[in-house]
Structure formats: C-alpha cells, structure tokens
Amino acid sequence: MSLAEPLRVGYVVKRYPRYSETFIVREILAHEAAGTEIEIFSMRPPDDGHFQDLIARVRGRVNYLYMPAEGLVPEPLAGATLTAAHFWKALHEAGKVLPNLWTRCAELGDEEARHMYQAVQLAHEVRRKTLHHLHAPFASEAATVARLASRLAGIPYSFTARAKDIFHKSVRAEDLRRKLGDAAGVITISDYHLDYLRSSYGPLAAHVQRIYNGLDLEEFPYRAPVDRPPVIVAVGRLVEKKGFDDLIDACGLLVDRDRLFRCRIIGAGTLRPVLQAQVERLGLQGRVELTGPVPQGEVIKEMHNAAVLAVPCIIGADGDRDGLPNVIQEALALGTPVISTDVTGIPEVVRDGETGLQVPQHDAAALASALERLLADAALRVRLAAAGRRLIEAEFNIHHNAARRRAIFRATARPSVKILQEIG
Known about the structure:
Shape: elongated
Number of helices: 16
Structural class: alpha/beta
Number of strands: 13
CATH architecture of the largest domain: 3-Layer(aba) Sandwich
C-alpha cells in the first residue's frame, strides 16, 4: 500500500470494552495518535460493571459481531439463538461482495458455526470498509475469527500471543500451529514467550516477534518513594493465578511480627468470597481490604501512595498463568517498588535486587520478608524505583512499541485500491 494512504486496521477482540484490558485500549490509542484508522470488532457484548476512563478517548467505531452486520439479516441477534436461517442469509448476502466465498468456506475445514458466522460478518465489513489488515490481540477465539475472515476477505491478519491463549491446558496445539502458519505476523510479549513458542512449534514460530506492551509515560509520572506510608497494594483479577491467597498469608505473618502496615487488594473476580473468608479467618480485618475494581486514575493514586506493589503470581492448576502483568510496568513507571515471582516473563522486568525483588511462588514467608524489607528501607525503595523507571522508559514506551506493531501491519497490508477493484 502507499505510504501516504492511512492504514486501516480491524482489531478483533472477544469482548469490548473490558475493565482488565487497558493494554488493548492503550495500543489502539497509540495507533490512532499516529494516524492509523482503527475499527474494533467485538465477538461478544461487554459484561463488566466498571470501565476505564481511557475508553472514552478511542475514536474507532465498535462493531459487535454477535449482532448482524448491516444488511446481512433483518433482525438483531443479541440474546437470541443463531439459527440456520440467519447463517444462510448471512452467507448469501456476503457472497455478493466476497469472491469465491463458497469455495473458501469449503476449504476452511471443521470450524464452529458461530466462528464461521462471525467471520462472514467480519469479512463482509472488511470489504465494506476497505480495511487493509486484521489484528487479534489474543491467540484464542479472536484470532480464530480473524484468521477465518482473513481467508474469506483475502487480506492478511496477525495476532498477539499472551498467556492463557498459549499456556492453558485448553489450548489445542494443532489450532495454534494453523494460526502460526497462516498469520502474516505474530507478536508475543516477552522473551520467555518467544522461547516457549519457538521451542514448542519450531519453524512455524520463526517469524514471531517479541514486542512488549507499553505505557504512555505522560500518564504515569515518576515520584521517588522516599516517604511513603506503610501501604502494600495489589491490583488484578481475583483469580488463582494472581496468588493473592499467598499475599494474605504473608500479611498474617507481618502481623505476627508486629509490623505496622495496611494492604489494599484492588480488583474483582470469582475468588472474592474465598479471599474475604481468608482475611476474616486470619483476623486481618482492618489490615487487609478487598476494595473491588476502581478506575485507572484511582489505581495510579493508590500506587503513588503505596510503599510496595505485591504481584505474587503463580502457575494455576490448569496451567493458566500471567504473561507479563501490565500493573508491574505501571508501578515501576510511577516509582513504586515491586515484589513478584519468576512466572513467565516477569523476571525480564522485575530483576531481583536491581529493579525489584523476586520471591518463589507459593512462599508466603519469603513474600512477607520481602515486604518487610521494602516497608522499612526507604533507600532500597528509591534505588529499585529509579532503576525500574529507567527500564520502563527504555523498553515500554507505548508509542515506540506500537510503531513496531504498525510496521508489521503495514508490511503485509493489502492496498485498498485492489480490494475496491475486486468489489467492483
């Protein structure tokens, strides 16, 4: 495509917006700031009760694929069952603008009906909006629909491989192999991920690139943690892989050691009742608080007022684990020291004794000792925080990292003039 032509990219996501996926919103905002035109395609309606302030700044239109694209079927499908009539009507209408649709559908193999239906919708919109490229920020369902639509519409797609979408026991290796083979570009978020993909999938993963997530550093002003109250903060979904039960146990040990502190765990999730019961069982009411979710601006204030961010990630029983939690980068940018574990790509950022402290998984005693060190030692906090900020500035600038993503998009993008000729 011409360098003078604005790049038009479709972002395919499972749900939009989502409270916990601010990294996708930041990515989109950075692309839009550089002049890229983004269309968002959501496979399902939002199901969160809270949303981040950043969402209001996104200019791109949100298209919901669980409802029909304009002209495909007469009635909306939200809350309704997808019927054969809907499916065949969608195929008939899409066939008018998608050359060889029926042949390509036959070539795509045994795919789920809902994925095919959404892919047909998406392919129809690709042609109608003359998009150049499709990108899925996860390697799971979103990449499935992007891949199918890419084949139907004849434009390239890419995806990002993050955590659950490659490590969870539900991941089908053959499905991921197919996506790696078909994608024009593949991104992953740490060197650990890159090594894992290349060792697991061999030559199919040779073109995968490591590009860290990023931050708009102006939104995360640095403050040296010289004089911080004895507050421990943790941020994330209340699910097994976050390891918050270990943090609560560590807080119990700090109480036994007569250490003055408060701990605030920010987020929502299925384990809230279990974690609250643990707090009460250990008699930590008034010391440990489960605050629920709060807006991004409030999270920044919480971290600026904390002596330490605790991120005690673990590998779950089902293999699920964090990739590289964005809250770590946010805390280091703000000047809040971090304690975490050796899960996946975390040691690339929390470098023990240099940019943070690292403890073993499931080791509440080691976590309590590390928390005690940072609560008591202001000089250590300042040293770790300064090195952490330097690392974030060097490796996690959202505008630099988004530009690398766009280079992948643009290198493979189809000229809209060719798409228009095929439509016409």
